[in-house]
Task: inverse folding
């Protein structure tokens, strides 16, 4: 049993947009030296492409095998970061449980690929998701548990969406830009370029926040939009929840 | 060595800024907000369940039409009318249903749209209660605690009312009483659990083999562990049906009145409510969500969430008092942020 094809295309389209946007973030972060969690962005590129290919087989533009290894590495990598996070060591983001979300997402992808592999022969023709659903008797309780956990993290992320400052506010905090040259070796656009679009008179006079909570301040580079990054996580969480529910 | 240091410095540069994204004035969720988020999660679960292939088939409209059975014409006719529309336009209507539930779930989770989404959820739940659940079998007399009565979706609406944001200054001994006030919240609890007592004593539940048959029927299509649990429980209930229905009614009655008792007894009542809710949920086969044909987790899980909202706190929730043994920062410093727009 599989969902309607047009629905799969909608979700797959959303994942392509997410993957494309995260790729753009990676490039922009690299070239402009702007802060971004590149590990998460990179994983989202891979995950978005993989999910689109699972939903609509015609969208498999990358290799077809080996994704299990990619997501197994992802589980181990983000798992290690999550352990560090819970031990109180400094990590990216400063959000408790942030990496656990990615452990879970990579684990869900790994689970789906392994489930697909067990039924691939029986699912000749049609979508891979259809094949998975046809053999839904295998580990469907685990699929439900993973779906519930991902939905929980999606809700958690959506709740924190309004806690994330918009880029304009971050740019305002970062302006003016006294010394950019030499702040970070390498080229890329200067903060003045980035801040010039957003900074206003109020922002130019703003004072740095508590260093523990607000590392950005005058002279710091403006992070890439954290709100859009969170929206990507929400979109991925909903889509992955849908894919897991299809396996029931 | 110098290259490594430069690399580390550059890496720290892009890492350092990530923590700098938190907006001022935002605070962590308090107990009511956490309950709202749980409600949002359930709506999201409903949405993805609604996207299942079965919901786009004729089976879904037949399931809707089946809820008309036993109801008076004034209730049954609109159900049949809506089921016919869903049958004729199955794909479009089901997609709309699913996206509405998705919007409600995300809307509750995103603070600026909290009130809008909660309001929409109440209207949507009332509509589904009638057109999708046939008023939960309350009027037809076919409903029982073990088969979803008085309707899972009406508990969504009840939770939305009880967890409505605002009126933070009102003192309440439990989270569910913050908006409506403790007396109204207690009355709603009494009505809900009292109605379950009444339905547990109806022939649909109390008749010999009725309860056992109801539970055994839920085993179909379930994974092995749940099917065997439902089969075993069904067999046991079949042999002790009427007595157990009365015992269930007594337990439900204790839960219903416990909210008016002193705090230790009230807490025991909430614990008993959660245990009964878990029992009901297993009897319901977890709402059939593991069968590929469930539209929601049914009433058991909702009753448990509702019970948590009535957990008596150490001291009354108010603008000035502690809520959970520590200063109620939520009440004193975030009148808007966790309440939505």
Result:
């Amino acid at each position: 049993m599989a969902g309607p094809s047009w629905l799969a295309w909608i979700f797959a389209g959303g994942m392509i947009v997410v993957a494309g946007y995260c790729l753009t973030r990676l490039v922009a972060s690299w070239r402009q030296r702007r802060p971004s969690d590149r590990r998460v962005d990179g994983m989202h590129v891979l995950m978005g492409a993989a999910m689109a290919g699972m939903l609509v087989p015609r969208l498999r533009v990358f290799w077809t095998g080996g994704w299990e290894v990619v997501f197994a590495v992802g589980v181990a990598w983000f798992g290690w970061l999550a352990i560090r996070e819970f031990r109180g060591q400094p990590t990216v983001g400063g959000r408790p449980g942030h990496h656990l979300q990615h452990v879970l997402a990579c684990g869900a992808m790994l689970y789906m690929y392994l489930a697909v592999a067990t039924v691939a022969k029986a699912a000749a023709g049609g979508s891979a998701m259809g094949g998975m659903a046809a053999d839904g008797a295998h580990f469907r309780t685990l699929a439900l548990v993973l779906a519930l956990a991902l939905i929980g993290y999606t809700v958690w992320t959506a709740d924190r969406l309004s806690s994330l400052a918009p880029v304009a506010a971050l740019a305002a905090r970062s302006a003016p830009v006294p010394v950019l040259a030499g702040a970070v070796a390498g080229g890329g656009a200067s903060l003045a370029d980035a801040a010039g679009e957003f900074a206003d008179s109020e922002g130019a006079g703003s004072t740095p926040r508590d260093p523990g909570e607000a590392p950005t301040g005058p002279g710091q580079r403006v992070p890439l939009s954290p709100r859009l990054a969170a929206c990507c996580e929400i979109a991925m969480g909903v889509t992955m929840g849908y894919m897991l529910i299809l396996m029931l | 060595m110098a290259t490594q240091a430069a690399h580390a410095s550059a890496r720290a540069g892009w890492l350092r800024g990530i923590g700098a994204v938190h907006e001022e004035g935002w605070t962590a969720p308090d107990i009511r907000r956490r309950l709202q988020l749980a409600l949002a999660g359930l709506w999201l679960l409903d949405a993805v369940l609604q996207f299942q292939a079965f919901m786009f088939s004729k089976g879904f409209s037949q399931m809707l039409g089946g809820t008309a059975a036993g109801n008076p014409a004034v209730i049954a006719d609109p159900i049949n009318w809506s089921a016919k529309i869903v049958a004729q336009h199955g794909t479009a209507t089901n997609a709309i249903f699913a996206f509405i539930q998705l919007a409600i779930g995300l809307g509750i989770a995103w603070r600026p749209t909290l009130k809008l989404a909660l309001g929409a959820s109440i209207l949507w739940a009332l509509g589904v209660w009638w057109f999708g659940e046939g008023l939960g079998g309350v009027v037809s007399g076919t409903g029982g605690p073990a088969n979803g009565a008085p309707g899972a979706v009406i508990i969504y609406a009840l939770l939305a009312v009880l967890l409505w944001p605002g009126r933070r200054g009102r003192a309440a001994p439990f989270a569910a009483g913050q908006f409506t006030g403790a007396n109204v919240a207690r009355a709603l609890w009494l009505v809900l659990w009292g109605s379950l007592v009444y339905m547990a004593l109806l022939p649909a539940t109390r008749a010999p083999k009725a309860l056992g048959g109801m539970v055994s029927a839920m085993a179909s299509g379930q994974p092995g562990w749940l099917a065997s649990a439902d089969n075993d429980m069904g067999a046991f209930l079949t042999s002790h049906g009427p007595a157990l229905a009365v015992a269930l009614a007594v337990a439900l009655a204790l839960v219903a009145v416990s909210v008016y008792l002193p705090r230790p007894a009230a807490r025991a009542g909430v614990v008993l409510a959660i245990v009964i809710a878990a029992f009901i949920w297993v009897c319901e086969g977890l709402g059939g969500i593991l069968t590929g044909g469930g539209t929601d987790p049914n009433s058991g899980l909702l009753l448990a969430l509702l019970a948590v909202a009535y957990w008596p706190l150490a001291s009354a929730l108010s603008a000035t008092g502690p809520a959970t043994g520590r200063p109620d920062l939520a009440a004193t410093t975030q009148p808007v942020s966790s309440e939505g727009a």
Summary: Residues 5-165+225-246 of chain A form one domain. Chain A touches chain B through 60 residues (CB under 8 Å). Chain A has ten helices and no strands.
